[in-house]
Amino acid sequence: MTKQEILLKKISGYAFAIYELKLFLDTHPADVKTIEKIRDFEEKLAPLREEYISKYGPLTTDENKKDYWTWVNSPWPWEGV
User: Fold this and answer.
1) What pTM, to 2 d.p., does this model score?
2) In Å, how far are 4, 10, 31, 70 from 57, measured between CA atoms?
3) pLDDT tens-place string over residues 17-47
4) Rg of the chain (C-alpha set)
5) Count of beta carbons in the 10 Å neighbourhood of residue 14
6) Which of 42, 67, 41, 56 is nearest to 6 (CA)?
7) How far is CA 37 from the centre of its chain?
């Protein structure tokens, strides 16, 4: 597994956990521990996203700061990186 893949798995894990905890808050809106856990995961996620973006490019179209799409230069999934 490459360093890029490892970093992406960490990002995906935190993003998934945050998403799931927010769904939990739909039925438990006053759960302070869950809100704190979301904030903790968001704090851990932010530097990982910044690292990924600086090394490998944007994760979403909203993060593209250039006037061109950088991921068209990367291998496509079916090209077997």
Assistant:
1) 0.78
2) 11, 16, 36, 7
3) 999 999 999 999 999 999 999 999 999 999 9
4) 16
5) 19
6) 56
7) 16
